Amino acid sequence: MADGPLRGIRILDLTHVWAGPLAVRVLADLGADVVKIEAPFGRGPRIYPEEPIGGFLGGDPGDEPWNRNAVFVKLMRNRRSVCMDLKQPAGRETLLALVREADVLIENFSARALPDLGLDHATLANANPRLIHASMPGFGGTGPYSGRVAFGPTVEPLTGLTSMMGYGPDEPRATGIAVMDPTSALAAAAAVLAALRRRAETNTGCRIEIALHESGVGYSGPWLIDHQLGRHQQPMGNRHPGMAPNGVYPCAGDDAWVAISCPNDEVWKGLCTVVPGLDPGFDLPRRREHENAIDQTLELWTQTQDKQSVAARLRSAGVPAGAVNTTPDMLADAQVRFRSFFVPLEPGPSIGANGEESGDSRIPVPGNAIHMPGISSADWTPCPRLGADNSAVLKDWLGWDEERIERLSGTVLHDRPPG
């Protein structure tokens, strides 16, 4: 595993979708020994009826499409995979044996999922009183919504954030990226680190609970204050309550845009030196009064310009501006490339049934924003194949022999989806 500051910390990863896997990826990048506990169908069926969201790694499903799900793969580096059926008594007992050896267990099931399997927190803590159990249910473990199955796009409207998105009061919009997931993920990773420090002092574990819903409510702070003060807020699109102009403007080319912001009068005067037809004498109240006309003037000018060159020209005049990057732009961005944020870790599209790679092509995946001594992508490992480490983990963590493991293979333990 990665040789980072968390080396020696054992984590059982029972997460799925985005919020939980991203939290674990941060900890895995920091060097924790992470064992991914997967259901036999956790990565999908043997034969996909259609392409999954995000497609297949490198655009190629290969001979094992369940191991090529791109969204899954990008989140699952630096782990070992144990595929077991927790609905079977032997699967439950095997998990509890692993819990006795673990430092942390992370899951983001609904509040009722683990209790229904006979694996509630009391059972886990009884197996290992030093265990840190991080739970990430959509609405928490208590309250009238606690039994609901939650996904970011369905949680987000309940946080109040959606009511402030969009381009006017009649057009609320969701963010489109389930922003509660990544914010909850980072909160969970930080909470686990805090709990590990607490355990070092008390020698006892604890249960951490992070609700996606509550993670999103924090975004509504300014609007809650405005409501308390009797002010009315409504969606403003790309505009800003304290700056004008402020927005995203079309440029020459297909789906090309530039973001421009004018925080004060000095910047406005700089903008006027570059864009013809603007009045440098306008203060903020006048700019707010004529914001539609200003935006129209900016659009007529920017749509004749290349987004990168116009952004550079505006910045040289002291105007905060930046090209809006598409995904290919982001991969090619000079800053991103200089800092090697995207890591060429995953094998290319030509993958055989045994996982062998044809050629030396590598697919870049997002790196880690944390830069500190002892953390490097040089020792990171790609997403493991389903059940690739069944035997190794049970031998390493539990000391089981091959005969005992073999008795569970094909019934409790799997290395491919049943079918």
Sum this structure up briefly.
With about 425 residues, the protein is α/β, with parallel strands linked by helices. About 35% of the residues lie in helices and about 10% in strands.
What this model shows, in words?
- With 419 residues, the protein is α/β, with parallel strands linked by helices.
- It has 2 domains: 279 residues, Crotonobetainyl-coa:carnitine coa-transferase, domain 1 (Rossmann fold); 84 residues, formyl-coa transferase, domain 3.
- The protein is built from 17 helices and 12 strands.
- The strands form 3 sheets. The protein has a 7-stranded mixed β-sheet, with helices on both faces.
- Helix 1 packs across helix 7.
- The longest helix has 23 residues.
- The mean pLDDT is 92.
Walk me through the topology:
Elements: E1 10-13, H1 19-29, E2 33-38, H2 70-75, E3 79-84, H3 89-99, E4 104-107, H4 113-116, H5 121-127, E5 132-135, H6 152-155, H7 180-202, E6 206-209, H8 212-217, H9 221-228, E7 246-250, E8 257-261, H10 265-274, H11 284-289, H12 291-302, H13 307-316, E9 321-323, H14 327-332, H15 334-338, E10 343-347, E11 362-365, H16 390-398, H17 402-408, E12 413-414
Parallel strand pairs: 1-2, 1-4, 2-3, 4-5, 5-6
Antiparallel strand pairs: 3-12, 7-8, 8-9, 10-11
Helix pairs in contact: 1-7
What descriptive keywords fit this protein?
formyl-coa transferase, domain 3; 419 residues; 12% strand; 12 strands; Rossmann fold; 7-stranded mixed sheet; single chain
